[in-house]
Write the structure tokens for this entry.
Amino acid sequence: MRTLWGAGFEEDTNQLVARFSQSVHSDLTFWQEDVIGSVAHARMLGDTGIISREESNLLIKGLEQIHEEGPDRLPKDVEDIHTAVEVRLREIVGDVAGKLNTARSRNDQIATDTRLFLHNELLRHLDLLKKLQRTLISLADKHKDDLMPGYTHTQRAQPVTLGFHLLAHFWALQRHGYRAERLTLLANFSPLGANVLAGTSFPINRDQTSDELGFTAPIPNALDATSDRSYILDALHLCAQTMIDLSRLSQELVLWSSREYGFVTLSESVTTGSSVLPQKRNPDMAELIRGRAGKAIGNYVALATALKGLPLGYNRDTQDDKPPLFESLKLTRDAIRLSHLMLETANWHTDRMREAVRGDFSTATDLADALAARGVPFREAFEQVAKFVRHCEESGISLEDATMADLHHCIPEANEADLVLLQPEESVRRRNSFGAPGPEAMRIQLERATAVVEAEGFAELA
């Protein structure tokens, strides 16, 4: 295996050591970033007179050729991506390739590559979140009046609508977009020129390379520049949190697509069959998202565990920060796309949802609230309604089917208007506080969600 440091050693590296430490195959993920960063560095070396203009131009021309060739022409029998680029560059331009690493180290180079890569990946991530949000808004508007049970503890609690439920997922995605945008700002500072850990005696211009690469500014402390991996940990945390919420959505689709619920049928394009049971339509994509959320969580924990004991300065442990980053970003991106596909192609059984609301005693709170509004202390109203619910259960009737006689049996002061409150449609219609599922509240929330998704970025959280 070819390395950039072997000249200082007399013994050959043990093959197990070489294999265990090699990272080039993983590093190829950001080969473009490595080449682009090298172009900026080569240009700066020429502009500052550290190397001649002719040498700088020759290096840039060779690097541009590498960029045009793509990663297939890069050697793989090397230690890392930096070595691969330099070896290929030497094949193109000759010994002048050895001047490319003047005033820089692999320590600041890898940190630069990773930050550039993460920035580009986060932009893709943000676009996908917007797309999924738009689908949720479209479905929420279409189903804003379609009743369904609202759950706590996976038990029916109060009537809501499908549109209201889907908008809850919309706002969760908005927070993830906000976090991703903040991370693009937080990570957008340049380590290039920090060298090994203490800068360099060469008259480099870190502002020039920072500006050319699109960074906000150079990181002001060279040791911090080569030591920091918090931005990768933040990215893994973002992926883990996003996957957790997508997993919760997926769990609902798994439950709701079962015959026990019957709320939705997922498209054949996102489900699979059984090799034994011909009637099956399995929600495998939702299950895989749910299961693989654990990988995203595990990647965060793994890197956090590795970083917690590291002293400042580059440590080889951080070579293993990039594979989990690559995996989590790809996993989260695919999960967002699959969530969009599942929702976009789903067939919602709104009649079944409406039927499920009836007979579940979920309008009991509306009656208690009505009594409280007439001056009855809520705890007393709660006890009266609880007795009424037990009476209905023992009588084998639902709240919707109760009569005035049933009401007066437990609540003598009840009136005809209270019977109307026991209807699920009336329960939802009356809930128009900010953020509620009532028609006016939903109109306001849909308008707000539409304005938020059409705005540039994710700055608005409410």
